[in-house]
Amino acid sequence: MTAVIYDELGPFKIIEVYEPSVSLRGTLVIDNVARGPSIGGVRMAPDVSTGECLRLARAMTLKNAAADLPHGGGKSVLYGDPGMPLKQKQELVRAFACALEEVEQYIFGPDMGTDEQCMGWVRDEIGRAVGLPRELGGIPLDEIGATGWGLLHATRVACDFQGRKLAGARVALQGFGAVGTHAARFLAAEGAVIVAVADIGGTVACADGLDLAKLLALKEVNGNVIDYPAGPGIVTGDADSIIDVPCDIWIPAARPDVIREDNVDRLQASLVVSGANIPMTPGAEQILHARGVLCIPDFIANAGGVICAAMEYQGASEGAAMEIIEEKVSYNVQRVLDIVRKDNCLPRQAAEEMAVRRVRRAMALRRWSVF
Ligand code: NAD
User: Fold this and answer.
1) Residue 361 — pLDDT band, cuts 50, 70, 90?
2) For residues 71 and 63, what is the distance between their CA atoms, to the nearest angstrom?
3) Whose CA is nearest to atom 21 of ligand 1?
4) Tell me: the pLDDT tens digits for 139-187?
5) Cα–Cα distance, 71 to 359 (Å, whole number)
6) Is the pLDDT of residue 371 over 50?
7) What is the pTM of this model?
8) Whole-angstrom Cα distance, residue 330 to residue 328?
9) Hey, what domains does the chain have and what are their CATH numbers?
C-alpha cells in the first residue's frame, strides 16, 4: 500500500476503481480544487501506481496554478498496455470514464498511453474531457505539439539566462512521442542541433546532428529511433544510454524518475528542461544544482499541454492557444529565473513557492478556509 502524505494542499480525494469483467483497474487522485475543477491526464501503462498518481496529481496542482489557470490539479492512472487492440482499449477507457462519472471535480485529459481518440470516448460517455479531437471542437494538443511549443519557449528563456544561444546548442531528447517529436521539431527550427534521441527501443546519436526528417519518418511507420539509417558518426545504444550523450541541453520526455542519485553523475548537459513529469528525483535535482546545471522544473516547462487544454475548455481557437502558451511559459520561466538569480535557490523551490502562494490565495477564498 502506498503511504499517503497529507499536507496543507491535499490530496483532496483518492478513488480506486476495479471492475474485473472488463479488466478495469485504475486510480483517480484529485489533489486540490481551490482554483476550480481539476484538470489532469489519464496515464495508461501496465506499471502505473497510486504513488505515481499522487505525485502527478500534485504536479498538476502546481502546474495549473503556476500557469494561472482556473483549475485545480488531478490525475488518473489506468492499468493496462496502451498498445492493446483498439476495441479492448475503447471498452476499458469507456468503463473507466463511467466509473468516475459522478466525480465532477475531475476533467479528463490525455497523457502517456491515451490520446484525443480516448478523450472522444470519455466525452461520449460522460461529457467531461479536454484534449478532444478536432471533430468534437477540440484542439488536438499532441498533434499540434502544444507541450513541445512551450518547451521551446522555456528553453529559449533558459538559454538567455545562461547567456548562450539556442541556435547551435546540442540537444538530446529522452522520449520521442508526442512531446519529444514536437520539441525536437520546434528546437531544430530555431537552429538547435539534435545530437541524440531515445525511445523505449534504444538511443541513436550523432555528434554532428541527426536528420530530424529521417527520425520523424521512422515515427510515421511506428518504427524505433535505433532503426535510423547507419552512416558516419551514427551511434546506437540501449534506451538508457541517452543519459551519457555529450550535449548542452537534455530534455527528458518519457517516464518519471529517469535521473536519480545513482545515475545523475552520468549527465553531461548544463541545462535540463523537463518535458516529462517528475523526471528527476529531488536528490538528483539538488546534485545538479550544486554542479551548476540549470534545471527548469517540469510543471513550469511542460505546461503547454494543459494551457492548451484549458483554452479548449474555454472555447479558444488553436492560434490563440499557441500564443497564450508562448506568453505564459516564457513569463513563468523568466519569473522563476529572476527569483533564482536573486535568492540563489533551486528553480523548483522558486517555482513551487510561486505556485503554492497562488493555491493558498485561492484556498483562502473558500468557505472552509483556515488561512
Ligand atoms: P508518448 O507516449 O507519446 O511518448 C513517450 C515516449 O517515451 C515514447 O517515445 C516512448 O518510446 C519513450 N519512452 C518510454 N520509456 C522510455 C525509456 N525508458 N527510455 C527512453 N524512452 C522511453 O508520451 P508523451 O505524451 O510524449 O509524454 C511524455 C512525457 O511528457 C510524460 O512524462 C508525460 O506525462 C509528459 N507530458 C506530456 C504532455 C503532453 O502534452 N503529451 C504534457 C505534459 C507532460
Assistant:
1) very high
2) 10
3) 199
4) 988 889 999 999 999 999 999 999 999 999 999 999 999 999 999 999 9
5) 10
6) no
7) 0.90
8) 6
9) 13-140 (3.40.50.10860), 146-302 (3.40.50.720)
Q: What is the pLDDT of residues 95-153, one digit of tens each?
A: 999 999 999 999 999 888 999 999 999 999 999 999 999 999 999 888 899 999 999 99
Can you tell me the distance from the alpha carbon of 294 to that of 280, in angstroms, rounded to the nearest whole number? 13
CA-nearest residue, atom 40 of ligand 1 = 305
Count Cβ neighbours within 10 Å for each residue of 47-61 and write b for 16 or more, e otherwise.
Answer: ebebbbbbbbbbbbb
Candidates 75, 89, 214, 328; catalytic one: 75
Residues in contact with 278: Cβ distance below 8 Å, sequence separation at least 6, in sequence order: 55, 56, 59, 256, 257, 298
Pick the residue whose CA is nearest to atom 32 on ligand 1: 276
Pocket residues for ligand 1 (CB within 6 Å)? 111-112, 141-142, 147, 174-180, 198-200, 239, 253-255, 275-277, 302, 305
219 is a catalytic site residue: no
CA distances from 362 to 9, 153, 217, 326 (A): 11, 28, 46, 25
Q: What mean pLDDT is predicted for residues 80-97? A: 97
Burial status of residue 191 (CB atoms within 10 A of its CB: 0-12, 13-18, 19 or more)? exposed
